[in-house]
Specification:
The chain has 229 residues and is of the alpha+beta class. The chain contains 7 helices and 11 strands. It has a 4-stranded antiparallel β-sheet, covered by helices on one side. The chain has a 4-stranded antiparallel β-sheet with strand order 9-10-5-11. The protein is globular and about 70 Å long. It binds zinc ion (ZN) (2 copies). One zinc ion is lined by residues 79-80, 116, 119, 180-181, 184.
Length: 229
């Protein structure tokens, strides 16, 4: 989503609230901004911190945009739709500016149950095996390549080192999936906040029943059609 001048003005922290109102939680949009110097050009453009359902699994998702500064979140778990007893932030960030980077992050508190919070965290933590394997594999490759003066020499040991991280990665993901209940919609994030433009916020929900309840609780807000993706 393209950045706008209006969004640039969000270089401030807004107050947040998380107050139960009947069967829903009113979650106020919270935005925070930090200034990064230009040493980090990789942070230019729109950054979305939250993992999307598509890149975590092949689950169906429901995407829509809704205009609001406060949203009502049904007090049910966004993953399994059972009563919620926990919450987690779904956040998005974007960076503007060329010489001085202005990074703005905003988030919503999404209700979860403790079980779904646990399998979500375990599933996402599994990726660290691949990240660690990449670093170690690259280091092995470079050390051998520098030692023998040839880039080809260290490739196979480096690749083997990376490959050795795949087995614990898949095992950790399987362990996370094993925690899922039959009513769970995804092992990863059940709600992804993809970003905002002005007062319009883009979400992807995985649980259809929770999506229906959320839209019903926020029926007074302007929103787009819901797309199945
Ligand atoms: Zn749950
Ligand atoms: Zn779940």
């Amino acid at each position: 989503m393209a950045a706008s001048a209006e969004c640039d003005k969000l270089a401030r922290r807004r107050s947040g609230s998380h107050t139960a109102i009947g069967g829903t939680t009113s979650g106020r949009w919270v935005a925070a901004s930090t200034m990064l110097s230009s040493w980090c050009p990789a942070l230019s453009g729109v950054l979305v911190e939250a993992p999307t359902p598509q890149n975590q699994s092949a689950q169906m998702a429901f995407q829509f945009q809704i205009s609001a500064k406060m949203l009502h979140w049904p007090r049910k778990c966004a993953c399994c739709c059972e009563p919620a007893n926990a919450s987690i932030r779904a956040s998005a960030s974007k960076t503007n500016g060329k010489r001085v980077r202005h990074t703005t992050t905003s988030w919503w508190e999404v209700p979860y149950c403790a079980t779904c919070l646990s399998h979500k965290r375990a599933y996402e933590a599994a990726s660290w095996w691949l990240i660690a394997g990449s670093f170690v594999g690259l280091a092995v490759w470079l050390i051998i390549a520098i030692g023998i003066g040839s880039g080809l020499g260290g490739f196979v040991p480096g690749a083997l080192m990376f490959g050795s991280s795949i087995w614990p990665f898949t095992k950790a993901q399987a362990a996370a999936r094993a925690q899922m209940k039959p009513t769970c919609c995804t092992p990863a994030a059940a709600v992804c906040y993809l970003g905002w433009y002005g007062t319009f916020h883009t979400f992807q929900f995985c649980n259809e029943a929770y999506t229906d309840e959320f839209l019903q609780a926020n029926r007074a807000k302007n929103r787009s059609d819901v797309r199945r993706i």
